[in-house]
């Protein structure tokens, strides 16, 4: 099976009836980069920069940050890399974090909230990203944006850092893309506020669905509540995709669900065309895509999604079985 996936590496990720789907990699450490060549991914859709902080006892110095980001960009060559800025807190605590333990860390002082409250740390990272780009393209996204102000504040810091570097003789990125992760359900209803300012939205379903389903992603006993192939979840993801289309914002999905063939097919049925996933998902998802007749699947999937009877999950499983995935 592994060999069969390897053989797919050079094949386009295109449905049987000709729709191209971009498959990208979720990565976080230098060792993940090997997977890019092995899988033939179209780029890195999510680079989790906090991993470098989590594996070290001390905060990585700016030189170490620049070196890591540069190696990622060098490795990717002409393929795009989307750096996600520090996403600490929640399930990703620093080894020496002395922060008071919160009752609900997923809902607490984490992610972009933490970064904006630690501007020294955050700015150093943004500076490292600008320096690593070294006059080439740079794509940055901010995690768990809940309200537009967080995005604007973070983007302003990034612009300040570009100016700071420029004033010191370092080149500006040749092309800058600034995105936001949609992981907090409220932000799905706040996209109007960032339209025109945000270059892309990346839907982080791991967090988004734990909030949407009120089921902690870290608690196995509620894993069932985490069902993605459910009408409420799919209608919500459809709403997000339609909002992005209405507002002309490019959108992708980077949560783990994108790596599971049935779920990935549902996302494509909703109109998503860019998926980013762990390396192990790329082969199976590509194999699924290449066997699928999207023009047959999509209308029936949407009909099931908007019907008011029947069990959605069974209908979807029956439809995906027809596609022999
Ligand atoms: C997500 O929440 O879906 C996501 C991609 O980010 P992480 O899993 O790192 O929280
Ligand atoms: Mg997340």
Automatic annotation (TrEMBL):
This is phosphoenolpyruvate--protein phosphotransferase. The lineage of its organism: Bacteria, Pseudomonadati, Pseudomonadota, Alphaproteobacteria, Hyphomonadales. It comes from Henriciella mobilis. It is found in: Cytoplasm. The chain holds residues 429 to 753 of 758 of the full protein. It comes from the Bacteria. Signal peptide: none annotated. Belongs to the PEP-utilizing enzyme family.
């Amino acid at each position: 099976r592994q060999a069969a996936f390897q053989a797919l590496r050079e094949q386009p990720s295109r449905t049987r009836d000709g729709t191209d789907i971009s498959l990208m990699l979720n990565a976080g450490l230098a060792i993940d980069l090997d997977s890019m060549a092995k899988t033939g991914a179209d780029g890195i859709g999510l680079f989790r920069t906090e991993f470098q902080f989590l594996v070290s006892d001390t905060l990585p110095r700016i030189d170490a940050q620049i070196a890591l980001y540069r190696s990622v960009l060098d490795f990717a060559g002409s393929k795009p890399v989307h750096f996600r800025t520090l996403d600490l807190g929640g399930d990703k605590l620093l080894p020496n974090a002395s922060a008071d333990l919160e009752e609900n860390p997923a809902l607490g002082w984490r992610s972009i909230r933490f970064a904006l409250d630690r501007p020294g740390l955050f700015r150093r990272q943004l500076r490292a990203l600008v320096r690593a780009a070294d006059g080439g393209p740079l794509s940055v996204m901010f995690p768990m944006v809940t309200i537009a102000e967080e995005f604007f504040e973070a983007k302003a810091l990034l612009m300040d850092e570009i100016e700071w570097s420029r004033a010191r003789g370092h080149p500006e990125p040749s092309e800058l893309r600034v995105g936001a992760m949609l992981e907090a359900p409220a932000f799905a209803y706040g996209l109007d506020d960032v339209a025109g300012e945000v270059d892309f939205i990346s839907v982080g379903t791991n967090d988004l669905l734990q909030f949407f389903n009120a089921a902690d992603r870290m608690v196995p006993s509620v894993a069932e509540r985490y069902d993605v192939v459910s009408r409420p979840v799919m209608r919500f993801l459809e709403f997000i995709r339609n909002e992005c289309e209405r507002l002309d914002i490019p959108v992708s999905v980077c949560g783990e669900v994108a790596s599971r063939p049935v779920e990935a097919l549902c996302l494509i049925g909703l109109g998503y065309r860019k998926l980013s996933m762990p390396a192990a998902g790329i082969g199976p998802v590509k194999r699924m895509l290449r066997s699928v007749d999207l023009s047959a699947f999509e209308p029936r999937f949407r009909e099931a999604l908007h019907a008011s009877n029947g069990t959605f999950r069974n209908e979807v499983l029956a439809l995906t079985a027809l596609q022999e995935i």
